[in-house]
Amino acid sequence: MLVLSAVPAACGAHVIGEPEAPRHPVPAPGMSGTIAFDPHILIDQFGYRPDDEKVAVLRDPHVGYDSARRFTPGTSYQLRRAADGEVVFTGTPQPWNQGQVEASSGDAGWWLDFSAFRAPGVYFLYDTTHKVRSAAFAIRADVYAPILKAALRMYYYQRSGFAKKAPFAPACWSDDPAYVGPGQDTQAHDVTDRDNRAKVRDLSGGWFDAGDTNKYTTFAAQPVHQLLTAYQENPAAFGDDFGIPESGNGIPDVIDEVKWEIDWLKKMQNADGSAALKVGEIVDATGTQPSLDRNPRYYIPSCTSATIAVAGMFAHAAVVFGSVGPLHSASSDLQERAQLAWKNYQRTPKQAHCDAGVIRAASADWSEADQSSAAVVAAVYLYALTGDAEYGAYVVKHYRETRPYRDFGWSRYNPEQGEALLFYTTLATADAETKAAILADKARDLSAGNHVYGFQPNDDLYRAFLPDDGYHWGSNAPRANYGNSNMDVLSYGIKNPGSAADYGLRAREILHYFHGVNPFAMVYLSNMYPYGATHSVNEIYHTWFWHDSKWSDALQSECGPAPGYVPGGPNAGAVKSGVPATLIPPAGQPPQKSYRDWNTPWPEASWAITEPAIYYQSSYVELLSKFVGPAATPTTAATAKRRPRPALCAASDKRSPKPAWVYHDGAFLWGGDWSYNASIWYADKDGLPAGGRYDIKVALTGAWGGFQPFARSLNFDLSPYGYLTFALKPTVANQTLRLSFARRKDLPAGVAVDPLKYGPAPVVGQWTTYKIPLADAGVTGLRVLKFAISDQTGLAKNVFYLDEIGFLPADPQPATVPGG
Length: 820
Description:
This protein is α+β, with helices and mostly antiparallel strands. The strands form eight sheets. Strands 1, 3, 5, 6, 9, 10 and 11 form a seven-stranded mixed sheet that branches. Strands 18, 19, 21, 22, 26, 29 and 32 form a seven-stranded antiparallel sheet that branches. Helix 5 (304-321) packs parallel to helix 7 and helix 6 packs across helix 7 (368-386). The chain starts with 6 loop residues before the first helix and ends in an 11-residue tail after the last strand. Residues 1-14, 633-656 and 814-820 have low confidence and may be disordered.
């Protein structure tokens, strides 16, 4: 095992993006390497944040392929420092559920709680009776940050038509652009009219969908929406340093990655707004490096399911891109494309049978009901963008057609639908009755008794309950989404009176399950040895990382698969999915043990269990991101508070005297950016932020340029506020600024003022905070579209830094005494 703190050095020594592939697991650190590892002692193999619960699971197999490997723990366990073996904590295991055998896993077990120990470092648990240990793990505030980078980089390796080369990919996972040859994605033919050269199109780019290299418009919806939502809810988790070619461009890398897919979807859209459904091959996939696949590629022409899918993705991307300075023009283009797709969908008879299966692998069709659900998602984000009554009315009329109203668990399946409804409730102009109904319905879901929400100790030995019918093809996606649905309870401040359920704990324990607290003592991500795993997924079904190739097995092959891929997961229906009944496991096992670490194709059909997919990945990435960065969700429900969300600041709550932040704690929280004569970086560290992880860097590209954010509602109510505040750090002497406001249609509001007269004179290289009375700017009580902080030095090139920008409540007025 590699000590986690060594990972950055390993990355820098070879490539920007990924540590070089080890030929075998890295030796365990320090004294832990002298003690045998025992897979019955389970912990999160990456580690824990200091204030989080830390509970080891000690497993005793009774039923299933490993029932002969019984284990009874010793009475005393020591937490030892990995470097020198020093004992730092001692505890006694407690039997789970009075020693009962859990049906879903076939195991009994014990829990060992060492939550009280919080000191950062690398440790392992030691059984004093059996003289064996757990995997080594870290306790550190940012313990999951490198794991998030590895998981997001899966999308980089899935890029079609893009070279993976040093310094962003090590030699093991380097490849030339795929499907750019004659008759391939740059010259894709209509599969329904193959000889018609007039229909040949450039449909290059985008992500490979899964273990195959086809590309589906409809299947892109979940990952695009989830990655955008993950960024909206915790932008501080996503830096501009994930080791992809776009890193360092001033745009968070998760947005760069989504933009790669969005740019492909733009190619899939036709001039009338409709969209093509699918791109791929008409022969079954075989193992080869993607760039060496010379098979011709075809596309399925327009289908209403694809059209409404792109309407939603374009609209959501436009909402988010509008808050990223360099992508403002892209946001405007996507808004137009989303509206065009919406109009086409509304006037076109619905098509639910466009994919005849000629292009191989899964059907890309959506039923008419699924299309109606997707239309609500599109309407939510179009309404957020435009405020147009048509979209708002559509949401009000149709919101109950989404998945949360056909299933329990809200966002456990089709998570983009439940998440869009919750996002709608944050909009300033959302219909009050509909907003209240959505939040009440989510609250009712909490108390429905389906074991989706909160942590219930007797539900699961492995502390991450999933019902038996959830162990199906792709079970790792709903598992992660159970965590996301729980976190939504905290994010939106939803109450469940009379319940002491700990929603954050449920989500964290699901994360630990992914990281090794499961019956296989396995990290459910591929080849994570360079990132600190003791035992991670070694094989996945993927046409690039094919069986018996040099990419097949992380332990036995020259390279193994690229790190960070989430496989489908345990599948209790594996035999029905084509896996031989004689292959044990996964066949004939309790649901949690219906997994096998292998990638053999037909006739063993490993794709039913170990194939990754961009939507399994997004479910995990969204969950993991909630526990990365300074804005990560608090540890306990008691201390959890509703995090600032981009849309929340669009509304002015006259009942609340709290500040309305525009940029706070390293996150941009307004609708978007119409800055002029300037380049804006929202994730800057050069200025040594005044508060949070990042600050805003304003780099002039012309004289009199400025920072100009606009409100998400396009009509921000200033009546509850008395001041605008911001912190400034100049880089030139005699820095001068101008503050101005504008209403809709760019009508001036109030008068321009010199904001720097409301505080000390600015000093080069130092932060100074200013508090400008709105009354002096003449905008008290007005509704405004935007404001600008513009440079007045006249310099064509200048840099200054801004931080902690927001509106503060008016000073309290003295009470009036009757007659006095």
